[in-house]
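JOB MANIFEST
job_type = single_chain_structure
chain_count = 1
residues = 156
[input]
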Amino acid sequence: MSVYWYGIIIALAIAVGYFVARRLGKHFGLEGWVFDKFMLWVIPAAFIGARLWYVIFNLNYYSLYPGKIFAVWEGGLAIHGGIFAGVAVALIWTRVKKIKFLRFADVMSVALILGQAIGRWANYVNQEAYGKPTDLPWAMYIAGEYRHPTFLYESI
C-alpha cells in the first residue's frame, strides 16, 4: 500500500483551514454550524473547480484524450479554479443562509491563506511548482538542478 503524501498534506490543509475558520468565526458572530455545513458544499465544489480549471488550461491534451478528464489520480488540480468555485459557492450559500457575505469572507480568507500555505508543501512532495535554476544558498535540488523553491516562497 502506498502513502500519497500529496493527499495527506492537502487534507491537513483543509482541516487546519476549517478549524481556524470555526474558531475565528466566533469573533465575527458566526456559529460553528456555519462552517460545518459550508465545508460539505465547498470541498467538492473546490475540487471540481480545480480540476476543471486544469483541464481548460490543458485543453489541447484533453481534447485528444477526453477519457483522461476524470483521471484525477494522474494529477492535475489548479488552485485558481478551486478558489473561483469556492467563492461562487460562498456567494450562493451565504445568500441562501442569510449570512453577510463579507463577514463570512473575512473569516474564510484567513482560513484559505493558511490552508494554501500548508498545501503548497504538497507541491514540494510531488516535485512540482518549482522555479528556475539558481545558485542561491536556499536553492533546492529538484528535477536535476538547484532551483528556486517557489512553493516555499508562497508558503511563507
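[summary]
Residues 5-125 form one domain.
The CA atoms of residues 53 and 72 lie 13 Å apart.
exit_status = 0
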